[in-house]
Design a protein that fits this description.
Molybdopterin biosynthesis moea protein, domain 2, 31% strand, Molybdenum Cofactor Biosythetic Enzyme, Chain A, 6-stranded mixed beta sheet, binds magnesium ion, 396 residues, binds adenosine monophosphate, single chain, Molybdopterin biosynthesis moeA protein, domain 3, alpha/beta, elongated
Length: 396
């Protein structure tokens, strides 16, 4: 059996980063940019009217003198009508300002008689109601930085620059294979021997917290062939496979055997830790496969300790719980040469061990804000000793 540290090193050494992906802009919501994006053009690309009104050349116009309206420019018009002194064009929001004009007066500030307008606004200044080319962003300047997480307005911003595809950081496709004939879904009344499934729900939620959306969950019967078949299938379209349950030594624990049959190379099986001793880790080519224990508290303990590390390796993005140190609020005894991870309540200076540490119980885990790591080499940790805590609700 290997130590916690050895297990972590093996995970780091075996899992390589996935490649960045090019995606269509419209399907990039929530994704993280892998590249800096520079504006490929000025925005707006041309001097643009920001009002419905009249455009003319301010030079050579005297306040109080009428202007004759000679043409019309609407949004989308490609013409550039010449506008001489004493003339104006009818213009609408978003329309290109004619080259010979340098101002737009909004229609509310104009009196019209026949083909002429008289401006009733006190002062008119140059470039009024004109959006200058490049006033939003100029060609060649940084629009969004690598590492930016795409939001709906960011998608709009890139779309407005004519950008169609972007390069994003990889997000693994994860398949969760849930073993256990005793498991049923919510809404079904429990028969004797049955329990409600919780591991896949927790894992899906935890993966979603990391921004992973491509998650498949499959329930498989406690039969070797079903395990092998589901695993082989998962290996065709996943970047990470997680088994839940079936990795211990019981007669219905087929995960290790199924991995062998599917050609997964075992990297380790069993760690000197509690909970989560049976944890399995194997590689199929570049695809990591984990056999998480079935007991729900062990699943989550292994998730925070090892699966987040695997995902960090795959994505090159930090996603591990933040580590802090605190003084233990009470004595703790354990066998030497075994790491214990305890559900705890971190209160800045101190950390309390919660009641109910057994691996089948989630009630204490639900209330915990950290996992306390009780060092391998010690068999007694005294009240007031410094301990390492993993803050499970805070990712770095
Ligand atoms: P196993 O490792 O398959 O022997 O499972 C260990 C314990 O965890 C058993 O009590 C199972 O009923 C329970 N268990 C396994 N899978 C799940 C699950 N997905 N949700 C809730 N409990 C589970
Ligand atoms: Mg089972």
């Amino acid at each position: 059996m290997i130590s916690v540290q050895e297990a972590k090193t093996l995970i780091k050494n075996h899992i390589s980063p996935l490649k960045n992906k090019k995606v269509k802009l419209e399907s990039s919501l929530g994704a993280v940019l892998a590249e800096d994006i520079y504006a490929p053009l000025d925005l707006p690309p041309f001097p643009q009217s920001s009002m419905d009104g009249y455009a003319f050349d301010l030079n050579g116009w005297k306040h109080g003198s009428p202007l004759r309206v000679t043409s019309v420019v609407a949004a989308g018009n490609t013409e550039d009508p010449p506008v001489k002194a004493g003339e104006a064009v009818r213009i609408f929001t978003g329309a290109p300002l004619p080259t010979s004009c340098n101002v737009v007066v909004k229609q509310e500030n104009v009196n019209m008689f026949d083909d002429n307008i008289l401006i009733n606004q006190e002062e008119v200044s140059i470039n009024e109601n004109v959006r200058a080319p490049g006033s939003e962003i100029t060609k060649g300047t940084l629009g969004l930085e690598a590492g930016f997480q795409m939001t709906p307005p960011a998608i709009g911003f890139l779309a407005s620059m004519g950008i169609d595809t972007i390069e994003i950081l990889p997000s693994p496709r994860v398949t969760i294979l849930v073993t256990g004939d005793e498991l049923v879904g919510p809404g079904t009344s429990l028969k004797r021997g049955q329990i409600y499934e919780s591991n896949a729900k927790m894992l899906t939620a935890a993966l979603s917290q990391l921004g992973i959306t491509a998650i498949k969950v499959k329930h498989i019967h406690d039969q070797l062939e079903a395990h092998t078949k589901a695993l082989k299938e998962a290996l065709t379209d996943s970047d990470l496979v997680l088994f839940s349950g079936g990795i211990s030594v019981g007669d219905y624990d087929f995960v290790a055997k199924a991995n062998e049959e599917a050609g997964v190379k075992t990297i380790f099986h069993k760690i000197k830790q509690k909970p989560g001793k049976p944890l399995f880790f194997g590689m199929h080519g570049e695809i990591p496969v984990f056999g998480l224990p079935g007991n729900p508290a062990s699943v989550m303990s292994c998730y925070y300790n090892y699966i987040t590390l695997a995902i960090q390796q795959l994505t090159s993005r930090p996603c591990r719980p933040v580590v802090a140190f605190a003084r233990l609020a009470g004595d703790y005894k354990k066998p030497e040469d075994m790491t214990h991870f305890l559900k705890g309540k971190f209160l800045q200076e101190t950390v309390e061990i919660l009641d109910g540490q057994e691996s089948y119980r989630l009630n204490s885990f639900a209330l915990a804000n950290c996992l306390i790591e009780m060092e391998t080499s010690k068999d007694f940790i005294a009240k007031g000793d410094w301990v390492k805590v993993h803050l499970i609700n805070k990712n770095i």
